[in-house]
């Protein structure tokens, strides 16, 4: 992945209600907005140039880019002079002034499209730097100025671009049968080189089978980047990173060094300790220095490098933590150092390995995990001369930064917990993950330590082994928060404090589990990319964060791990474990995630990239069906509460019903994709298959009154049929009424697990029962979202009752306090409460249909669509409803009134508005007022 001068790229986008909908509008614009048939407003001044230029899935001036034919996107300037784009022109050149011959010129293209415009010139090459700019035309055929030029630098796109070799400590060669302990011991690697001329630019291309930290002349190359390069199907692809290291080099002697640990590459999953630390980690690096005279010098990992395993990090494990021995620190090991040579007992020549032609080295296509922020201790909850427990007040993921007084020879022990169990420090829910760090002091005094090659999910930290004469202090430890670097929107707030806390919990669940891949949980001996959790959360995450690149990258791993038969593993990247079978509702991520991303972005590339995978998954579904009824295995409606099934964790909904419903859903989405991509030869076949499965679903599982013919009638039974369009005509209303009856029988509590819960809100809204959605969300008692809030949750839980303040952890097990699946309800905060929905893919046309409930009198927020920001704020005061709306440039919106306003007189920007006046709203600000019905 790329960096720009090693600066941290993402910061939180702070939501400020004072900014939202704050600007007033000129009277002439109000008139134009009220009369939607009038001529569009056109600026009398020169049009402003496009802004917010981005490449691919949202990258700004990327360094080390991955796509030889990039996609270009931009936005139009918002404000009084907003207009509709009618044409664009893109130019690509090799210099920022565009004085050299143009590499590619789109010419003037008649189109309103401002996103995902694909480069049509000769494919860009490894290392190539280009600049691009764009200008647009409005309805009056006026042209804007050219935008500012934006740079784009390619990474190394193919294995042939590498002259470097994989290197590692010679003792770790598999031929020498190294022990697990030896492989688990991090390696220290280094070389020195001379630069005899003035340096113009320098790029470090680097990766690892495992995890690395790189240094030049004693300075860490990317201090904020952690756990690089990340986790992919290593047998297919390993990601590489590109760094601009020009400012770290000096004329004369220099040193390039790295620490190396096993990470996900050589570590186990779950509790399979026999698979832990069995593959030796390896490093590859290629430093390319361009001198001012244009000549190039390359320093690559090869047999001349030195290696040591005698450094201070004695053990490193994803699940089990780190061990650090201060006595083994090697001063100056990563800098120019005449004392380090083969004559030193600590250093040996490396072993080398050639690149494997079957394993692609590819630029990382989303931002790495980074240090995002630090959190201070909120309180010390327990302290004595032996141990101290710190509470950060927030469940999170990362590592601690420790500064504690120690005596020489002491070993500090640092443990982690998500919650206290009846007041006591509790780690049982971490299962076999030891999740403990150890620091052995060499001298008396305050030590400073921050783990390098592990991570933890925690709220509480327990430290023992400090100087017993010292009084524990809050400044002994700081929480370093880490996750995949993406902009968080912070874009919803309401009048209800618990609802706001719930959204905060969902966002922290996202942050904690977006750790290079979408994890299921970040603390115990699992931490895998479960596909079922992912598919229910993809759309909510897109509303809350700029996560498109994150998901697109993981979809590539999904494609790589799909078998020749079309099977999608239940978790990706895949490592063999007891779950070797595919699961419906989990493997269907192969069709659901690409389609959901397309609806949120309008980028057909995500469909084109994944269409073959979608087709193969449908074929795999078909191979596990008979008479259009699927017999595919499934985890079921995972962790449904109050289940009557003997398989308690899998819910009561019949497995073949779930599998057949998802079979139909995957066919439907693949059919829609075929239509979007113009795959006309596939459309008829998919239409016929979809109709066949739909009819079989209806006839096999229900009688003429839609009562189930097998198993129990569950909420999820009808949610699947309704959400996946498997009922027709009058059957839709019948199914809706049965669902509502089942809710009533449960005292309007949900009885749904991982698969049913994400469907509840939209299905009930379609049934005209948004009041029930509000009631479900605002329930205080188990099972409900507010139950966790009432019990102190700061993230979303795996079970509806994973924990209580009174009784502590649920004795059933499976009690992660940091799962994101049930956080999928946040989608309705945006699509329901605010009412923001894409009427067409990518929000080119937007529907605004806010849903009102008596539990809430105010909500406001925004979403950054590919065209720009759509903003919504509504308030109910004394039966008066007020809606403020900002429609972004180059798009249109329609307002669908809440049912409470249907009989009311509606005013838009001060004038009475009929329904047609609420359609086809052009860019601008709107104020809608009405009186609620009694």
TrEMBL record:
GO biological process: carbohydrate metabolic process
Keyword Methyltransferase set for record: no
UniProt catalytic activity: Hydrolysis of terminal non-reducing alpha-L-rhamnose residues in alpha-L-rhamnosides
Top enzyme category: hydrolase
SUPFAM superfamilies found in the cross-reference section: Six-hairpin glycosidases
UniProt cross-references to InterPro entries, sorted A to Z: 6-hairpin_glycosidase_sf, 6hp_glycosidase-like_sf, Alpha_rhamnosid, Bac_rhamnosid6H, Bac_rhamnosid_C, Bac_rhamnosid_N, Ig-like_fold, Rhamnosid_concanavalin
Residue ranges of domain Alpha-L-rhamnosidase six-hairpin glycosidase in the record: 491-832
Key words of the record: Hydrolase, Signal
Limits of the Alpha-L-rhamnosidase concanavalin-like domain: 383-481
Domain Bacterial alpha-L-rhamnosidase N-terminal: 197-373
UniProt GO molecular function: alpha-L-rhamnosidase activity
Domain Alpha-L-rhamnosidase C-terminal: 835-900
Regions that span the bilayer: none
Source taxon at top rank: Bacteria
Protein's name according to its UniProt entry: alpha-L-rhamnosidase
């Amino acid at each position: 992945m790329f960096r720009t001068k090693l600066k941290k790229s993402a910061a939180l986008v702070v939501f400020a209600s004072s900014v939202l909908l704050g600007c007033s509008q000129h009277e002439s614009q109000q008139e134009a907005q009220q009369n939607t048939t009038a001529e569009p407003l056109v600026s009398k001044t020169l049009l402003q140039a496009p802004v917010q230029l981005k490449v691919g899935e949202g990258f700004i001036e990327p360094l080390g880019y991955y796509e030889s034919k990039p996609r270009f996107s931009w936005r139009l300037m918002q404000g009084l002079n907003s207009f509709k784009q009618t044409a664009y022109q893109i130019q690509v050149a090799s210099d920022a002034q565009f004085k050299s011959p143009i590499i590619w010129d789109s010419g003037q293209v008649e189109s309103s499209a401002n996103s995902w415009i694909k480069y049509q010139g000769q494919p860009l090459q490894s290392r190539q730097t280009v600049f691009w700019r764009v200008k647009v035309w409005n309805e009056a055929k006026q042209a804007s100025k050219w935008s500012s030029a934006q740079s784009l630098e390619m990474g190394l796109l193919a294995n042939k671009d590498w002259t470097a070799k994989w290197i590692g400590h010679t003792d770790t060669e598999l031929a020498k049968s190294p022990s697990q302990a030896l492989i688990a011991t991090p390696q220290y690697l280094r070389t020195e080189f001379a630069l005899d001329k003035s340096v113009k630019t320098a790029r470090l291309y680097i990766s690892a089978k495992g995890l690395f930290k790189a240094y030049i002349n004693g300075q860490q190359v990317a201090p904020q980047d952690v756990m690089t390069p990340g986790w992919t199907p290593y047998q297919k692809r390993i990601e590489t990173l590109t760094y601009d290291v020009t400012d770290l080099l000096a004329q004369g002697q220099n040193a390039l060094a790295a620490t190396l640990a096993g990470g996900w590459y050589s570590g186990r999953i779950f509790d399979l300790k026999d698979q832990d630390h069995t593959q030796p980690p390896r490093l590859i690096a290629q430093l390319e220095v361009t001198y001012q005279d244009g000549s190039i010098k390359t320093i690559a990992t090869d047999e001349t490098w030195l290696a040591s395993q005698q450094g201070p990090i004695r053990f490193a494990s994803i699940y089990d933590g780190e061990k650090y021995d201060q006595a083994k620190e090697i001063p100056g090991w990563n800098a120019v150092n005449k004392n380090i040579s083969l004559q030193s007992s600590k250093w040996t020549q490396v072993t080398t390995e050639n690149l494997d032609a079957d394993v692609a080295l590819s630029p990382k296509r989303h931002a790495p995990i980074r240090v995002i922020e630090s959190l201070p201790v909120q309180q010390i909850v327990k302290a004595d001369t032996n141990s101290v427990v710190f509470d950060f007040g927030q469940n999170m993921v990362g590592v601690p930064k420790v500064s504690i007084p120690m005596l020489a020879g002491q070993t500090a022990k640092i443990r982690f917990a998500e919650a206290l169990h009846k007041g006591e420090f509790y780690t049982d829910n971490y299962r076999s993950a030891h999740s403990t760090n150890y620091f052995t002091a060499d001298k008396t005094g305050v030590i400073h330590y921050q783990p390098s090659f592990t991570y933890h999910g925690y709220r509480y930290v327990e430290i023992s082994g400090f100087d017993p004469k010292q009084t524990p202090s809050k400044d002994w430890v700081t929480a370093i928060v880490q996750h995949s670097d993406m902009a968080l929107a912070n874009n919803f707030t309401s009048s209800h404090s618990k609802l706001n806390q719930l959204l905060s919990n969902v966002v922290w669940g996202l942050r904690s589990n977006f750790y290079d891949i979408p994890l299921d949980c970040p603390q115990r001996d699992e931490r895998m990319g479960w596909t079922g959790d992912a598919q229910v959360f993809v759309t909510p995450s897109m509303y809350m964060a700029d996560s498109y690149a994150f998901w697109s990258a993981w979809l590539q791993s999904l494609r790589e791990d799909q078998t020749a038969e079309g099977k999608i593993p239940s978790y990706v990247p895949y490592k063999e474990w007891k779950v070797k079978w595919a699961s419906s509702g989990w493997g269907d991520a192969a069709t659901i995630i690409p389609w959901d991303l397309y609806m949120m972005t309008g980028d057909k590339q995500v469909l084109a990239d994944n269409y073959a995978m979608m087709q193969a998954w449908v074929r795999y579904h078909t191979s596990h069906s008979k008479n259009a009824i699927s017999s595919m295995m499934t985890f079921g409606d995972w962790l449904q509460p109050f289940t009557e099934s003997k398989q308690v964790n899998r819910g009561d909904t019949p497995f073949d019903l779930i599998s057949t419903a998802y079979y139909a859903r995957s066919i439907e989405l693949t059919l829609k994709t075929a239509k979007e991509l113009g795959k006309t030869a596939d459309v008829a076949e998919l239409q016929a298959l979809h109709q066949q499965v739909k009819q079989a679903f209806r006839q096999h599982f229900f009688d003429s009154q839609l009562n189930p013919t097998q198993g129990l009638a569950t909420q999820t039974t009808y949610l699947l049929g309704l959400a996946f369009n498997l009922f027709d005509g009058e059957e839709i209303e019948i199914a809706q009424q049965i669902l509502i009856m089942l809710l009533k029988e449960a005292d309007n509590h949900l009885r749904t697990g991982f698969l049913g819960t994400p469907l509840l809100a939209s299905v009930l809204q379609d049934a005209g029962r948004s009041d029930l959605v509000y009631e479900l969300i605002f329930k205080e008692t188990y099972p409900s979202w507010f139950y966790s809030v009432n019990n102190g949750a700061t993230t979303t839980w795996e079970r509806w009752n994973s924990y209580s303040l009174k009784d502590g952890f649920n004795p059933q097990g499976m009690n992660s306090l940091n799962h994101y699946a049930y956080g999928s309800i946040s989608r309705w905060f945006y699509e329901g409460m605010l009412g923001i929905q894409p009427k067409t893919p990518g929000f080119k046309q937007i529907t605004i249909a806010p849903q009102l409930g008596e539990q809430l009198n105010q909500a406001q927020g925004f979403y950054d669509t590919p065209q720009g920001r759509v903003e919504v704020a509504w308030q109910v005061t004394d039966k008066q409803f007020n809606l403020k709306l900002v429609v972004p440039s180059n798009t249109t919106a329609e307002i669908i009134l809440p049912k409470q306003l249907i009989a009311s007189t509606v005013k838009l920007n001060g004038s009475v508005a009929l329904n047609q006046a609420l359609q086809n709203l052009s860019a601008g600000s709107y104020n809608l007022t009405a009186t609620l019905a009694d």
